[in-house]
Each structure stands twice: as C-alpha cells, then as structure tokens.
Design goal:
Layout: H1 32-46, E1 56-57, E2 71-72, E3 107-115, E4 118-125, E5 135-142, E6 150-155, E7 163-171, E8 174-181, E9 186-192, E10 200-203, E11 214-221, E12 224-230, E13 236-241, E14 251-256, E15 262-270, E16 275-282, E17 285-290, E18 301-303, E19 320-321, E20 324-325
Antiparallel strand pairs: 1-2, 3-4, 4-5, 5-6, 7-8, 8-9, 9-10, 11-12, 12-13, 13-14, 15-16, 16-17, 17-18, 19-20
Length: about 325
C-alpha cells in the first residue's frame, strides 16, 4: 500500500548520486545543456530542508572531447557527487532483486533508509486484524541492494497493534521512527545511533483523530520537524508539528480533501517557494495540495490533475529527474 523512491534526512548530509561511467573524470561539452536542466533538480533537491544557493562555475569554452569539470564556489560543503540527469527514469524498469516474506500478511507501508553504507527497509505488517496482531519488519541489505536481505521481525513491542504507517527521522545523528495504528495510536521508536540497535518505544499521547491513518512523511521546515500522514478512510491529511525536535509533544492540524475516497498514501514536493502534498486516493486518483508558503498553512489550495482523477491508487512517490516531476 506504500511506495518509496528513497528517504532523505534533511539534517544530515544530502548526496546526489552519479549515474554513468565510473571511470569518467569529467563531462564533455555535449552535456552542458543537461547540466542546466540538472541544476534545477539540484537546487530543488538541496533545498529540501533549507533554501540555500548551490553555486558552481564551469569554463566558458572547451576543446571538443575534453572534459569539462564543474568547480564549486561554496566553502561549507564536505563532498558532492554529480548526477547529469540522463532521463533513465523513463526507461522500462528491470527487476534486480526480490524477496518474499511469508510471515507478512498485510504490509501497508514500507520505507527505505540508509545508515552510512548500509541499506535498510522497514515495513509495517497490519496482521490479521485481531487484537494484538501486527508487527514491524526490518530488511537488512548490507552494502548492496542487489543482495537478498536478512529479514528480522521486530515484533510489536507488546503495545503496537495493527500498524498502518511508518516514517523515519534522523536528529543529532540519532534515528527515530513514528508508527501509527488503525485505532489512531501514535508511537515514537528510538533506535539510537544505529538502525540495528536496541529500540525503545513510547506512545505519544494527545494525538487524537489519527484513526486509520497510514504512510508518514517527516521533514524539517525552518526550525520545525513536521510529520505529514495520509488519513485513510477519514479522507483527510493530518499534519503534526513537533517544533524543534521529534522528541517534543506535537500540535495537530488537518486538511479535509473533497469526496469520500480513501487517502492511501502521500508524498511531498518542496520547491523552496512552493510546497506541495501529493496524495494517492483509492477511487479518485491523485490530489495535489498546494501548501505555499509553508506546510503549516491552514488554507491550502486543493486540486486534481487532469487525467489523474480516476483509479484505485494505493501508493505514490514523487520526485524530480532531468527537470521534470514524476
């Protein structure tokens, strides 16, 4: 019921990955036009957590066939990897690896994250709907996503029943997750400095109105940690503002979407000057919520894109490639 293209922690190092020849030492002049398009993606990607300028220079001219190497003019960047936006997202995808987990009966949400060079996936299993059923599953891919993952059931810690959504967050080099259940309970999971570490679970009280919510997106806007949650059969999107830390008690607001379709999944697009929530809905396709100038805006503009008003959608992931949104 959920789909993820990736997970970015806004207050850790954001990286742009290179696609192409690993032996290449630069780019030739035919790639300059692509670089202009990629710059838009780069700025949007960089500004996910803060609207800074990403400055670099390139030579005004170069000999045919010789490398053209961008030079950063910023002093506070540790490292950069360039992605020249080859547009491969439009190609037919190829299955690289798959894994079957017979212990999961109803996986409503899954999130991918990395801890250093190691890759992990976390899924919530709703269970069979009975009292006390449901669990959280960890997929450990090690350093290669092409490998079959080691699968570990983390259980439900004795208190998380019938989970529907999970979202991850990193703060001060420590890992956290939020889990929401069918009954509307909200839990904070604390992993410490490692995603393989011991997990401490606490219930966040006062978050009423979260019944049937699923699929959680967590981001930082200015100095506020914000969790955005798809509202399931409530037909709403819920926003939780934790202030300057995920450890704080959140304040809650809601956005009611038109119609009666389930809100099955959400993703966010942050263009610095514009903020959007894109929701998939079971029965009415996509809904776009313009939150400008802030994800805490209480009067958003709601629309349905032309040609995307029908469909039994269960998941959505939005991202920018080569200056285009997908």
């Amino acid at each position: 019921h959920g789909i993820k293209a990736g997970q970015i922690f806004p207050n850790t190092q954001n990286r742009l990955l290179v696609k192409g020849d690993p032996n290449s030492k630069g780019m030739n002049t035919c790639m300059l036009k692509k670089l202009v398009l990629c710059l838009l993606t780069l700025i949007s990607f960089w500004c996910y957590s803060q609207c800074e300028n990403f400055d670099f220079t390139i030579p005004a001219s170069s000999c045919k066939g010789s490398p053209v190497i961008p030079q950063l003019t910023m002093s506070d960047i540790e490292s950069v990897e360039w992605d020249f936006c080859d547009g491969q997202i439009e190609n037919q995808p190829q299955l690289v690896a798959s894994s079957t987990n017979s212990s999961i009966s109803n996986a409503y949400d899954i999130v991918y994250i990395n801890d250093g060079s190691e890759h992990f996936g976390f899924a919530v299993d709703y269970g069979d709907g009975s009292i006390g059923s449901g669990k959280i599953i960890r997929y450990d891919f090690g350093e290669d996503l092409n490998l079959a993952p080691a699968i570990t059931s983390l259980g439900n810690f004795g208190i998380i029943q019938n989970p529907l959504g999970i979202g991850f967050w990193s703060e001060d080099n420590l890992y956290f997750a939020l889990v929401v259940t069918e009954n509307g309970d909200l839990f904070r999971l604390y992993f410490g400095s490692s995603l393989k570490g011991e997990i401490n679970v606490s219930q966040i009280n006062g978050g009423t109105g979260l019944v049937d919510h699923r699929h959680i997106k967590i981001l930082r806007e200015n100095n506020s940690v914000i969790a955005i949650i798809a509202g399931g059969n409530t037909g709403a999107i819920t926003i939780l503002n934790f202030g300057n830390s995920i450890n704080n008690q959140p304040t809650k607001s809601s956005i009611s979407l038109p119609g009666s379709s389930f809100v099955t999944s959400i993703d966010v697009v942050n263009e610095c000057v514009s903020n959007f929530i894109i929701a998939s809905r079971y029965g009415s396709g996509l809904t776009v919520v313009s939150m400008a100038p802030s994800f805490l805006n209480t009067n958003p503009v709601i629309s349905e894109p032309s040609g995307a008003s029908t469909g039994l959608m269960l998941g959505i992931s939005a991202f920018n490639s080569a200056g285009r949104y997908y």
